[in-house]
Design brief:
Helices cover about 65% and strands about 0% of the residues. It is built from 3 helices and no strands. Helix 1 runs antiparallel to helix 2. The mean pLDDT is about 95.
Length: about 60
């Protein structure tokens, strides 16, 4: 599985909220999105390790 669909979903969730740094939900999504964007190679390695071809994944 490629990380881009997951990153796009995180970004969609983040965009659904007002950019309010005092809102815990927006703050969390924003920083997770930024971190995963910065660490794409590590995230891809994680996905390769944890999601196998037989695993069910949602349609993005």
């Amino acid at each position: 599985m490629k990380p881009e669909p997951l990153l796009a979903e995180l970004n969609r969730l983040r965009a659904d909220l007002d950019a309010d740094p005092t809102d815990p939900e927006w703050f969390t999504l924003h920083h997770v999105f930024c971190f995963v964007s910065y660490k794409m190679g590590d995230f891809q390695a994680y996905l390769d390790e944890t999601i196998g071809p037989e695993d069910e994944v949602p349609d993005f």
